[in-house]
Amino acid sequence: MDLEKLESDLKSLYSHKYKTTKERVSHSLNELTQSLDTTVDKMDLDTIKTVATTILDAETQTQYGILQQLQEQKEQIQRAIEKQSELLQDSKYTVFSVLEEELNSSDNALSILHQVKLQSIDLFDILSDMVESVIITALEKDNNGNIKETTTEAIKDITYEAIKEGSLNTVRIRKILSTILHSSIEIADATPNRANEILASTLKGMRSGLLKAIDRFKQRLAFMPMEAKHILVEDYDTIIEDLNQTDTLFSQVIITQASLSSRDIKTILLDMNQNMQNDLDELVHLSKETAEVMKARFSKFAKKAVTSAEGALKSQKAQEAKRMGIQALGAAKTALEGAIKSAKGNINKD
């Protein structure tokens, strides 16, 4: 059968003058089978596939066009959001730059302003440059041969501020920690005689910043209004699971970055990771404690959400999925029966 002609004929037969999908499909099929002087049960796979896809395209053409328009609008909006986000960040930088000039005479005021700045701008876009700046500045201003304390505190603040306002899911935290450690590794590679100090202070600062962010999350759980419970319920299981493996996440970040580094840096990082296992006990304890607080406060709502999801099984999509599963099983059974009959036939012939 000429499938291209079949497709063309069916398109011309399909009419939206009929009110329902059933009427439109039935009409086009009846007209088609009559014109071809055949029946549906005599059609092969390719013919039925052509019929189905042609009807599907004809029926959904309008919706598909609307969807394409919406997609284009979405992309335009996303570009506009990105542009405005950049302008917003630039405006913030400008404001803080002016404030820094105005407060330049007071070290204490500048220090406080720095904390406000960390809390007010989106750190992720500039995370790598910030870490690089912190470590290089510490090295340049170092007079006593020890940069650990100041660098650790700075990395702690950066880590905390970058993590605290977003989700505590592993993907996000891993990206933040990896970015910070990668920047530190680059400087350690360029300054091999200070590599141990640089990496040790970075890892300690990262751990302390992560601890502080988790502790803040724990404290906020106790006072989080019930109106906000849906935010946690949506990712309840994921957050609980992630909180119970923060130590593993931290070690994985170190091991992964070590595997991408030079031999000397890799050796230093793997040794430090091994020696840090005891230091991670506090992280494990706090994370599990936070998970328990979350369970105690929000588990009932999460269970209700699951119950609601089970109720949604009655929805059209769920019923369609169930129907397709039954159909798949039926098709497999039919194919199996056909194979058995064929095998028996061959045996009898022999």
Give an account of the 3D structure.
The protein has 350 residues and is an all-alpha fold. It is built from 14 helices and no strands. The protein has two domains: 3-77, no CATH class; 123-310, Tetracycline Repressor, domain 2, CATH 1.10.357. Helices cover 82% and strands 0% of the residues. Helix 5 (127-141) packs antiparallel against helix 6 and helix 11 packs antiparallel against helix 12. The two termini are 36 Å apart.
Whole-number radius of gyration? 31 Å
Just name the CATH architecture of the largest domain: Orthogonal Bundle
- Outline, from the CA principal axes? elongated
- Structural category is mainly alpha
Task: Give the number of DSSP strands.
Answer: 0
Spatial gap, N to C terminus: 36 Å
Helix content: over 70%
The percent range for strand residues is under 5%
- Supply the number of helical segments: 14
* Major beta-sheet overview: none
CATH T-level topology of the largest domain: Tetracycline Repressor, domain 2
Low-confidence stretches: none
CATH class of the largest domain: Mainly Alpha
Q: Determine the mean pLDDT.
A: 80
Succession of helices and strands = HHHHHHHHHHHHHH
Tell me the layout of helices and strands:
Layout: H1 3-13, H2 21-36, H3 45-102, H4 107-120, H5 127-141, H6 148-164, H7 170-190, H8 195-223, H9 229-234, H10 236-243, H11 246-259, H12 263-275, H13 281-311, H14 316-349
Helix pairs in contact: 1-2, 1-3, 3-4, 5-6, 5-7, 6-7, 6-8, 7-8, 7-11, 8-12, 8-13, 10-13, 11-12
